[in-house]
Design brief:
single chain; mainly beta; Porin; 16-stranded antiparallel barrel; 2 helices; 60% strand
């Protein structure tokens, strides 16, 4: 019988976390086990229709930190993607996993992490982790190892972030890469009613990418947009695209619509509509319909009902 080493490591980490939480073995250390389970029953039609139960970036992680002195804390995050729908042998996949320092200077993280360009989109993608996720159309959605990321404190609502990708990264083609972003406002739209960011990748996963992201809130209505332009580092394979969306909240119900058009990673457009219904603060049921139309005259349609539980 084969052993899933990642699963064993995860189980050991969670057991150790439980032991620390129960015994207070490290004075002053804050630990949190967190994650979400998101699963859908789908009808997928890409030329042939099939029924599918899909796990949508379900995950589990541990994060925390310890205060070193009044102005400095050590922080960490270790997260895995968990496939709750398919074969057990592919059940775990590494996500962001890093260690760092946090203080009045901002925070520095070293390890595997989302690039600043990816982080700069905030919460704009209304169908993130689902079939209409912008990663299917746009380049730049990178989570890479061999990275060091710095995020500054807020200066009048502005933050600066930068990711350095070492040439040892397997996607770097032997070159160091950089991903930088300037952000304004609160990406969750709780402290401000507007969020905006501009970001630039240079030699990241073999590409140079520019992205502009904006989102605003007017009462119960959220409006968002992303423009993305990317080309190979040698100047070939240029393509751009845009996405616009809206979400309207009515009590426990949120209605969503999103349209994307791309000449980038995939050439074509996609339209999605969906509805979320909150059963509790951390539990929702939802449905969506997504229609892809590609320039090569192929298309795909996805109709889904699902549930998400965050913990």
């Amino acid at each position: 019988m084969k052993t899933n080493k990642t699963a064993v490591a995860l189980a050991a980490s969670l057991l150790l976390t439980g032991a620390v939480l129960s015994s207070g073995a490290i004075a002053g250390e804050k630990l949190k086990v967190y994650g979400k389970v998101n699963a859908t029953l789908q009808s997928d039609d890409s030329g042939e229709r099939e029924t599918n139960v899909k796990s949508n970036a379900s995950r589990i992680g541990i994060k925390g930190g310890v205060k070193i002195n009044d102005g400095l804390s050590a922080i960490y995050k270790v997260e895995w993607q968990v496939d709750v729908a398919d074969d057990e042998k592919d059940n775990f996949k590494a996500r962001s996993q890093w260690v760092g320092l946090k203080g009045n200077f901002g925070q520095v993280m070293i390890g595997r992490n989302d690039t600043m360009l990816k982080l700069s989109q905030g919460k704009i993608d209304q169908f993130n982790d689902l079939n209409a996720d912008i990663k299917n159309l746009f380049n730049g959605e990178n989570r890479l190892d061999d990275t060091v990321t710095y995020i500054s404190p807020s200066f009048g609502g502005f933050k600066l972030g930068a990711t350095f990708i070492a040439e040892d990264n397997k996607k770097s083609n032997g070159k160091n890469g950089t991903s930088i972003a300037m952000m304004y406002g609160d990406a969750k739209l709780k402290k401000t009613n507007f969020y905006g960011a501009i970001a630039r990748d240079t030699d990241v996963a073999g590409r140079d990418t520019t992205r502009v992201s904006v989102q605003g809130k007017i009462s119960n209505l959220k409006l968002g947009a992303i423009w993305n332009d990317s080309e190979k580092a040698d100047g070939t394979g240029d393509g751009d695209g845009f996405m616009v969306n809206a979400a309207y909240k009515m009590g426990a119900t949120t209605l969503k619509a999103q349209y994307s058009d791309s000449e980038d990673k995939q050439a074509g457009d996609v339209i999605s509509v969906g509805v979320d219904y909150k059963l509790a603060k951390n539990v929702k049921v939802f449905g969506f319909y997504t229609d892809y139309s590609f320039d090569d005259n192929t298309d795909a349609k996805h109709l889904a009902l699902g549930m998400e539980y965050k913990f």
